[in-house]
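quick q for whoever's on today - can somebody do inverse folding on this one?? i tried earlier but teh output was garbage lol. tokens:
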């Protein structure tokens, strides 16, 4: 079975993330969305909440599973016998950071391949942090995150 992991913080999932997940699910037999548990960064949503939001917006894609991991991504992948990492690339500015991570993961496990998907142009400006910033100052986040989670993001930001 051809399995890929799509790792990230997903705090919260955006339409850009969802676009990559949908496209990857057409290329691979199974896509595991891997949410990094980062003890140094509390985040807006807890890991369980992020998981629930991603499960909700991917519920119609049967070959997508959502899990969380701590520590190194390569260890998470080894435990599940996964060799492919999918990443979205928005702009040249993403490249350097992604290139460094891809090479580090390769150094840690030479069997691992990182594959990049170009983000759809209409999401090229989008990130979880910009969504949070817009929401924080009362801007409209419709079209930036999946419709099913707009209210929850706004509520969480202002409670
Ligand atoms: O959405 P993000 O925050 O850009 O995702 C970053 C992520 C989770 C993909 C990256 O930080 C990661 O893989 N962290 C796990 C730790 C690890 O494996 N580090 C080695 C590669 S530098």
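ok took a stab at it. sequence:
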């Amino acid at each position: 079975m051809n399995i890929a992991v799509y790792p990230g913080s997903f705090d919260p999932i955006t339409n850009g993330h969802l676009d990559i997940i949908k496209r990857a699910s057409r290329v691979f037999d199974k896509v595991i969305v891997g949410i990094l548990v980062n003890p140094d960064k509390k985040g807006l949503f807890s890991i369980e909440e992020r998981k629930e939001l991603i499960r909700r917006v991917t519920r119609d894609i049967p070959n997508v599973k959502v899990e969380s991991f701590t520590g190194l991504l390569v260890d998470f992948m080894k435990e599940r016998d996964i060799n492919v990492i999918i990443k979205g690339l928005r702009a040249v500015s993403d490249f350097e950071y992604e290139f460094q991570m891809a090479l580090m993961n390769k150094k840690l496990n030479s069997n691992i391949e990182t594959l990049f998907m170009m983000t759809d142009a209409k999401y090229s400006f989008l990130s979880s942090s910009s969504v949070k910033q817009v929401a924080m100052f009362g801007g409209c986040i419709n079209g930036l995150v999946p419709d099913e989670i707009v209210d929850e993001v706004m509520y969480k930001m202002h409670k």
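fwiw Residues 3-124 form a domain with the Rossmann fold fold (CATH 3.40.50.620). also The pocket of 4'-phosphopantetheine is lined by residues 7-9, 36, 72-73, 101, 104-105 (CB under 6 Å). so keep that in mind when u check it
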